[in-house]
Design a protein that fits this description.
It is a single chain. By secondary structure, this protein is α+β, with helices and mostly antiparallel strands. The protein has five helices and eight strands. The chain has a five-stranded antiparallel beta sheet with strand order 4-3-6-7-8, with no helix packed on it. The protein has a three-stranded antiparallel beta sheet with strand order 1-2-5. α1 crosses α3 and α2 runs antiparallel to α3. The longest helix has 22 residues. The chain is elongated, with a radius of gyration of 20 Å.
């Protein structure tokens, strides 16, 4: 299994809360309450073990959103209390030529920090800019690239996320 696929599966597994797991197991109508409790505890531990391994095996920046002039994301391993928030992110912006698959670095807006809300460089926020751009977010576990497309002065959308 590729690490990106395992990460994707771990995201799905981690979405089940303890209460979800209890409810699902309870629908099995086990007659032995101790066996039901054991199954619940085992599944919760297994879920946490899967999440701890795969969400920490690579950069867990996820749930990207464009809000006004910012791109925000969540650190899933920290959100699920499987790890602490990374001490630092390296941020690199770039314009992207989608037809030629070529990146043009936007060096003036590169930064280092701990924020999960990133200000979009003014060049891409300019009402005349149309096209693709992206942000590379690197922490000690790897790099995640979010690709964005601006189609109008008021509309920017996340079009792809790549884990490296």
């Amino acid at each position: 299994m590729r690490p990106e696929d395992a990460y994707w599966a771990a995201r799905i597994v981690m979405a089940f809360t303890d209460e979800d797991i209890r409810t699902i197991v309870h629908t099995g109508e086990l007659t032995d309450r101790a066996a039901e409790q054991y199954l619940v505890e085992t599944l919760i531990k297994r879920r946490d073990k899967i999440g701890r391994h795969w969400l920490n095996a690579m950069n867990s920046a996820d749930h990207f959103q464009v809000i006004d002039d910012h791109v925000s994301f969540e650190c899933l391993s920290a959100d699920y209390t499987l790890a602490t928030q990374p001490k630092e992110y390296q941020i690199r912006w770039f314009e992207y030529d989608n037809e030629r698959e070529v990146r043009k670095p936007e060096t003036e807006s590169n930064s280092t920090g701990t924020s999960t809300s990133l200000t979009i460089p003014s060049r891409f926020n300019n009402e005349n800019f149309r096209g693709y751009y992206g942000v590379e977010i690197t922490d000690s576990h790897g790099t995640v690239v979010a690709f964005l497309r601006k189609t109008s002065p008021a509309k920017t959308e996340i079009v792809a996320v790549q884990r490296l």
